Every structure is written in C-alpha cells, then in structure tokens.
Amino acid sequence: GAVKSDDCLLCRAGFWSDTIALSEPHDQTQTPTIDACEECGAGMFPSGEGLTLKDHCGKCSAGLYSLGKVPPACNSKETCCQDCVAGKYQDQMVQDSCLECQVGKYAPDTK
C-alpha cells in the first residue's frame, strides 16, 4: 500500500475531485471501482492537474463551445473550445453547443 503522501496521485488534467481519503475495497482481491476524479465536462477544458473543485476547470468563453473531451483530444482552451460556425452564436460561457441565428439574421464566419 501507499507509505507516504507522495504515493497519492493527482487527478489528471481535465478531471477534478473534492473527495478526501478515497479507499480501496476491504477485499484485496477486488480492484477499486470508485474513481474519485470526475471529468470537467462540456463547456470546459483542462486547466491543470490536481483540481479540487469543478469551478477550477477552465471555462470556454462566450462565442465558443466544448463537448467536454479530455486529453489528449483536447488539452488547452485552444484545442478544446471551438468557435461557433457561421450562422451560429453563443452568448454564454461554459456551453456545449452554439445557438442558431434568428430568421433574418446571420453570424459571419470569423475565420
């Protein structure tokens, strides 16, 4: 078993946990099934290892969205948060999609 605090692992980038003292099952023949680290999720991106609150995950800003993929698929704001395509917009932070422009309006492609 672990013999020092350095044996405790950080949640990897893109994940967070506020769980203290996660333990393995009493029956050592079983493998641990509890994963204390949760994905940051849609509209967010990895902002470091060892995050202790979901609020510490990076947040995609307005005009961007993220499906909540984790490294290596995305590992920064630039690779996780995508621009809304032409004809769509997003006026809120931390979103997993963009909204369509209303009839009679358009949003140009910003690329």
Strand content: 5-15%
Count the DSSP helices: 1
Structural class: mainly beta
- Biggest sheet, open or closed, and with what strands and sense? 2 strands, antiparallel
Whole-number mean pLDDT: 82
What's the count of strands? 8
Oligomeric nature of the chains: single chain
Order of helices and strands: EEEEEHEEE
Describe the model.
By secondary structure, the chain is mainly beta. It is 4% helix and 14% strand. The chain has 1 helix and 8 strands. The protein has one helix spanning 77-80; strands spanning 15-16, 38-39, 44-45, 58-59, 64-65, 82-83, 88-89, 99-100. The protein has a two-stranded antiparallel sheet with strand order 1-2. Strands 3-4 form a two-stranded antiparallel ribbon. The protein starts with 14 loop residues before the first strand and ends in an 11-residue tail after the last strand. Mean pLDDT is 82; it is low at 24-34.
In short:
With about 110 residues, this protein is mainly beta. It is built from one helix and eight strands, in the order βββββαβββ.
